[in-house]
Design a protein that fits this description.
It is a single chain. This protein starts with 8 loop residues before the first strand and ends with a strand. 38% of the residues lie in helices and 23% in strands. A 6-stranded antiparallel barrel has the order 11-12-17-16-15-18. It is of the alpha/beta class and 475 residues long. Helix 6 runs antiparallel to helix 12, helix 8 packs across helix 10 and helix 9 packs across helix 10. The mean pLDDT is 94. The protein is built from 14 helices and 19 strands.
Length: 475
């Protein structure tokens, strides 16, 4: 399955009315079509924009919105009030719209032609108050639409449109996310719990349970020749380090992880799942907890949650879609540096961190896990990266789901950890470790997170607001 997002398109319509006359309406259409053509030609938008005409009546708008809803290739609507469009015309259609809406508040020209401006010009260029009339009704309807304000040909405005397109596609794809749980959540842990029915109602996520025995059967059915091919691929992409292990033990551990990788991948693809969970307390019939197996699958775009954390698995998949599967990983707050001048969180997970944030070439190593009571698993060991990132989590309360997040400064760990062979990423909340961590805990944020060096804070807010969630972004 991997990411495999379809080539969506966005429909663009312009608002006006019959009072301006046919000549003016033709000019409105020409201007709008020119904007759409140039936006597509800019090369900055990840998805195509399709001009669908000038809307002048309530019936026409309503039919247009119905068409949007029933075309699976359309990810959302972009509207612009070139002239003055009476907002009552938009009420019925907008209330019926079930896809993301961007209001582009712009003007065809970026200047006021002082020497030539006349009443004909004024009739044709009424975005200044046309957009406000339209925005009023959207605010009154209480929809979670996006407003992008500014000159349409400016690079900053085009980037905002591009960012929103990715958010809108993620919103649509959220309703296709299906997570398979192998075993239940970790016993006696609170933050991994959640209302799966509410998650399906609100975010479209389907979460199903399978016994570990179903996975064991798939693992036992993997062909040795397929493992051979994956082993050769692994050697070409990563550095294999046997360390103090006997050769046979090392090779068996790596091959068993590849066996789990192939089994998990086939199971998910055959059953239509886009993410999965495991639990080290529930490994009946498995020789090892999936480590390298989970890392390889996450690198391909599958969602993953440890200890049965299906919320993180689904959220990871969703944010990977938003980020085009770039530098977006499952993470956990691991340990702290509380010294002045060094204050930071060292993030990791025992085995399962996506190598897309590696700043060095990951090494395939085999070490004891000291938890779960199974054989020593192979895993990718690497150092994280530098840069701005967002770190977010999803918590379930009795009154609904809440997204908690903040922007962080990512750093490489200050030194090697020869006795802790895991993937490692250092970060500090932009608001400061003390302030960020305190607010995070007061808001009820858990220890499993999704860390992304690709997604912006605004995209986090836009996406989860669009899904109707309470967003507590710490700033």
């Amino acid at each position: 399955m991997s990411i495999n997002v379809k080539d969506y398109e966005f429909w663009f319509v312009t608002g006006s009315q019959f009072l301006y006359g046919d000549e003016q309406l033709k000019a409105v259409a020409n201007d709008a079509e020119d904007i759409v053509n140039k936006l597509n030609a800019s090369g900055k938008l990840p998805y195509k924009v399709v001009f669908k005409g000038v809307m002048t009546t309530a019936d026409g708008i309503t039919q247009f919105m119905k068409d949007v809803n029933y075309d699976d290739n359309v990810a959302g609507v972009i509207t612009w009030m070139h002239t003055f469009s009476p907002a009552k015309n938009w009420i019925r259609g907008t209330r019926l719209l079930q896809k993301p809406l961007l209001h582009l508040a712009t003007q065809y020209l970026d200047n006021i032609p002082y020497k030539t401006i006349d009443f004909d010009y004024m009739n044709l260029n009424q975005s200044a108050h046309g957009d406000r009339e339209y925005a009023y009704i959207n605010a009154r309807l209480g929809i979670n639409n996006k407003i992008v304000y500014g000159y349409w040909n400016d690079s900053e405005v085009q980037q905002e449109i591009a960012d929103w397109q990715d958010v809108a596609v993620a919103y649509n794809e959220s309703f296709n996310i299906r997570i398979v749980r192998f075993g239940d959540t970790m016993r006696n842990v609170a933050v991994t719990e959640g209302d799966k029915v509410q998650a399906q109602i609100q975010m479209g996520w389907t979460v199903d349970y399978y016994g570990v025995g179903d996975l064991v059967e798939a693992v036992n059915n993997v062909d040795e020749a397929d493992i051979d091919r994956e082993y050769e691929k692994l050697k070409s992409e990563y550095t294999l380090v046997e360390g103090e292990n006997e050769h046979d033990k090392y090779e068996h551990s790596v091959r068993y992880q590849l066996r789990e990788y192939l089994a998990l991948k086939k199971f998910m693809d055959d059953h239509g799942y886009s993410g999965f969970t495991t639990n080290f307390e529930d490994l009946w019939g498995l020789e090892e907890l999936p480590g390298l197996a989970a890392q390889l699958l996450m690198k391909e775009g599958y969602g993953f949650g440890a200890e049965g954390d299906w919320k993180s698995a689904a959220m990871g998949r969703l944010m990977k879609i938003l980020a085009h599967n770039k530098q977006t990983v499952f993470m956990e707050d691991y340990t702290l540096d509380l010294r002045d001048g060094h204050k930071a969180i060292l993030g990791s997970h025992m085995l399962e961190v996506d190598p897309s944030i590696a700043s060095d070439k990951p090494r395939v190593e085999v070490h004891p896990l000291d938890i779960g009571g199974k054989d020593d698993p192979a895993r990718l060991v690497f150092t994280g990266m530098e840069g701005k990132a967002v770190d977010v989590t999803l918590s379930d309360f009795r009154d609904g789901y809440k997204v908690i997040g903040y922007e962080v400064n990512g750093h490489k760990p200050e030194a090697e950890t020869p006795h802790l062979p895991v993937a490692k990423q250092l970060w500090t909340p932009v608001v400061g470790l003390k302030e960020g961590a305190t607010q995070w805990m007061k808001a009820g944020g858990g220890h499993h997170t999704i860390l992304s060096f690709t997604i912006s804070p605004q995209q986090v807010k836009d996406l989860f607001t669009m899904l109707g969630l309470d967003v507590d972004f710490i700033e």
